[in-house]
Specification:
By secondary structure, this protein is α/β, with parallel strands linked by helices. It folds into two domains: about 5-105 and about 240-264, 3-Layer(aba) Sandwich (Rossmann fold); about 110-235, Glycogen Phosphorylase B (Rossmann fold). It contains nine helices and eleven strands. The strands form two sheets. The chain has a six-stranded mixed beta sheet with strand order 2-1-3-4-5-11. The radius of gyration is 19 Å and the shape is globular.
Length: about 260
């Protein structure tokens, strides 16, 4: 019998941990829970902040599953399920990515045609203390991006993350707080981000987007240099994205594990 250890320290992740446990039990796994990792075939964590648990599991030679917020639609109603211990685009995902049915059922209306040129360059902010930007001076990146975009002739605007304390970027026009991402994207000719999930929203909205870190979930459909970005085919990326996030009931029923767990 395969064994799994679920370590969940956060209250908001508790329902997801419980549902994931129920799904594993339906597939015949023996599941333990606790505040610290135990040697097991599979370690399950919410996010990647628990470096001690990740390192211990690597030393034991077991697999790691990371649960995090979803990427498409209402992110609080979905969780991503990846393996390998990496965050977002640095994780390993499993599923029938060539099957379009899940995207068509849940998200088809979100994919808009690529936008015609015209508008400003929108820099998409992130929370400065987030794990996704821990290896970059993100404020310096925003400043350098703004300077380069101005050289390219763009009017540049900055959208601060709603949870960020960053209130201004020198010499960059700040969009007012309280407007929606959709409203701010509506006037954008291009969008620029490090690896924010808002880059996924921008691509889906039809805004050609630059992502400068491989942790971006939109990496394969974005440009990676501070130049006018491409407008590639997005359908295959979107179809795969739909298999990278799951609802609470899909975890609990075992449906998620039936699709993602075959390689573990």
């Amino acid at each position: 019998m395969k064994t799994a250890c679920i370590v969940s320290r956060l209250n908001h992740s508790r329902p997801w941990a419980d549902a994931f446990k129920a799904g594993l039990l339906k597939h015949g796994w023996k599941v333990s829970e606790g505040p610290v990792a135990r040697q097991s075939d599979l370690l399950v964590l919410w996010g990647v902040r628990n470096r001690l648990a990740l390192e211990a599991q690597r030393n034991w030679g077991g697999a790691t599953c990371i649960l995090e917020r979803g990427y498409v639609g209402d992110r609080f109603q979905w969780t991503s399920v990846s393996f390998g211990g990496g965050l977002n685009g640095r994780g390993i995902f499993h599923g029938p990515f060539g099957d379009a049915s899940r995207w068509e059922k849940n998200f088809a209306a979100l994919l808009q045609p690529w936008r015609a040129s015209g508008g400003y360059a929108l820099i998409l902010g992130q929370v400065t203390g987030d794990m996704s930007v821990k290896n970059v001076d993100i404020v310096k990146f925003w400043q350098e991006a703004a300077a380069q975009l101005k050289k390219l002739g763009y009017r540049v605007k900055f959208r601060a993350h709603p949870s960020s304390h960053v209130m201004s970027i020198p010499n960059v026009e700040m969009l007012p707080r309280g407007t929606s991402l959709a409203e701010d994207l509506a006037g954008a000719a291009i969008a620029v981000n490090w690896n924010s999930n808002s880059g996924v929203d921008a691509v889906l909205a039809g805004v050609p987007t630059i992502a400068c870190d491989k942790g971006s979930m939109a990496w394969e459909v974005t440009g990676h240099e501070l130049l006018t970005p491409p407008a590639p085919e997005r359908e295959s990326w979107a179809h795969a994205l739909a298999w990278k996030q799951w609802k609470l009931e899909e975890l609990a029923s075992g449906e998620c594990w039936a699709h993602v767990g075959g390689a573990i």
